[in-house]
UniProtKB/TrEMBL annotation:
The keyword Transmembrane helix does not apply. GO terms for molecular function: ligase activity. The keyword Iron-sulfur does not apply. SUPFAM superfamilies: Acetyl-CoA synthetase-like. Residues 376-473 form the AMP-dependent ligase C-terminal domain. It comes from Thalassotalea algicola. Gene3D superfamilies: 3.30.300.30, N-terminal domain of ligase-like. This is Phenylacetate--CoA ligase. Keywords: Ligase. InterPro entries: AMP-bd_C_sf (IPR045851), AMP-dep_Lig_C (IPR028154), ANL_N_sf (IPR042099).
């Protein structure tokens, strides 16, 4: 007797696609549905989805192990109000799961599903820039909702119908470029150019693609997007004339919007910039809207807590803390409940001008696990660059180096790319020191270098997220 191993669901047969589109609105329906929704109704929707996700998590060895170790039983979690009883998880817990149960861990919930009944999977990894790459697994339902949320964000920002989008997100094993491509091709009518990073498509080729195909929207990490404008000029291509960009959708954080807009615009026209936030595991969490007043958290899909990095307690509204995320839609593969991103932000407490019931956040303000504490001052390296934007000769590239002297005293050296000729740099270095002391709160050392000299250290030409900190204190 033989078993028919060819009988299993295809991708779109494994969930109710039409119901998903109804449950998670897109385009104009976002405002139509949520502008009339009260905070109480939103909380009820979140609670219903949260309890489904928790029920699924209790079936998975990973969560059973962590929650039982905390003394919890299923009856302890009766509603979203009980979420603080649940322990936080982070990448280290996922990697511990992988080490215990190689090669893909036991956090996904596939092990108790017979092979012939398993849904198709989308499999990626993180970049591995901080160690062994982390497996990322997506079921069809949650993968499509993740993609839809990217497109929801783009269309909320004002993406024009029939746009031509060039993506500078990486491909290969990492998730970024693939998931953005799926979002644009499944949930917008834009033409999509999957150029990728400068490693996948040389920067010179990228700017020529933009000119040839009339790209009007750029998406990716803004450090590289800004670098592309310099490459265009080197090739004799004029941003704002030969390439006319309407929108730049990136991860702006604390970067200078004016510098990026100027790089791709001219006196008559400049692109409109939009920020959004998400991580590989969770997908899109929040997006800036046309109001440009913080980023709206997609709270029908994501429950966001902002917690003190030391105590893990909820901070007061407007105070900085770690973003801890619960995905309210991932009740299929790899539920994510109280995932500590270690990314720092703060809540925007002013009235929501869009009339939406959602909380808003400032955006990515640095990482708590990449923070330096010098003489009682917390320093987030990602926030140092924007401090120097008022200097005309600052070229936007920098790196922070933490060092420890023979007496055991910690210092930070900020290396900065400037346009100033080498013979004149000594005359302005004290101005940089004074500027950073005023904005950081303590004195740091400064070294001024020329354009491109830091590229081997920041790796801005080959990495999606440039290196901003080199810690030499413990070597």
């Amino acid at each position: 007797m033989t078993t028919n191993n060819s009988s299993y669901p295809t991708y779109f047969e494994s969930f109710d696609y039409k119901q998903m589109l109804n449950d998670y609105p897109l385009g104009d329906e976002v405002l139509n549905r949520f502008k009339t929704m009260s905070k109480a109704d939103l909380k009820a929707l979140q609670n219903m989805r949260f309890m489904k996700v928790v029920a699924r998590a209790w079936q998975i060895p990973f969560y059973q192990r962590i929650w039982c170790a905390a003394g919890l039983v299923p009856e302890d979690i009766k509603s979203l109000d009980d979420i603080e009883k649940l322990p936080l998880i982070s990448k280290s817990d996922i990697m511990d799961s992988v080490e215990r149960h190689p090669p893909i861990g036991d956090f996904h919930g596939l092990d108790d599903i017979p092979v012939e009944q398993r849904p198709p999977l989308v499999f990626h990894t993180t970049s591995g820039t901080t160690g062994t790459p982390q497996p990322l697994l997506f079921g069809p339902k949650s993968r499509e909702i993740q993609s839809l949320l990217v497109a929801r964000s783009y269309r909320f920002m004002g993406l024009k119908a029939g746009s031509t989008i060039q993506s500078c997100y990486g491909h290969g094993m990492i998730n970024g470029g693939h998931y953005i491509r799926e979002a644009v091709t499944h949930y917008t009518n834009s033409m999509f150019l999957s150029a990728g990073t400068g490693v996948e498509t040389r920067s010179v080729q990228q700017v020529n693609l933009m000119k040839t195909f009339g790209v009007n929207v750029l998406v990716g990490f803004v450090d590289y997007i800004k670098r592309l404008s310099d490459v265009a000029k080197e090739e004799g291509i004029k941003p704002g004339e030969d390439i006319s960009i309407d929108m730049i959708i990136g991860h702006l954080g604390m970067e200078s919007r004016e510098a990026i807009a100027n790089a791709w615009g001219n006196a008559e026209k400049q692109p409109e910039l939009f920020d959004w936030y998400g991580v590989g595991d969770t997908g899109t969490i929040a997006a800036e809207g046309p109001d440009h007043d913080g980023m709206h958290v997609w709270e029908d899909c994501q429950y966001l807590e902002i917690l003190d990095p030391d105590s893990n307690q909820v901070v007061s509204p407007g105070d900085k803390g770690n973003m801890v995320v619960t995905c309210l839609y991932k009740d299929d593969v790899y539920p994510i409940i109280r995932f500590n991103t270690h990314d720092i932000t703060e809540e925007v407490t002013s009235e929501n001008k869009m009339g939406l019931p959602f909380m808003r956040i400032r955006g990515f303000m640095g990482r708590s696990d990449n923070m330096l504490k010098l003489r009682g001052i917390n320093i987030y390296p990602q926030g140092v660059g924007p401090m120097m934007d008022e200097r005309d000769e600052f070229l936007g590239e920098y790196i922070c180096r933490a060092v420890r002297d023979e007496a055991g005293r910690d210092e930070m050296i900020v290396q900065v790319e400037v346009s100033t000729p080498v013979e004149k740099r000594d005359s302005i270095i004290d101005e940089y020191k004074a500027l950073l002391k005023r904005k950081i709160g303590i004195e740091v050392q400064v070294e001024l270098v020329g354009e491109g000299e830091l590229t081997p250290l920041t790796q801005v030409d080959v990495r999606q997220k440039p290196i901003r900190l080199i810690d030499n204190r413990f070597k």
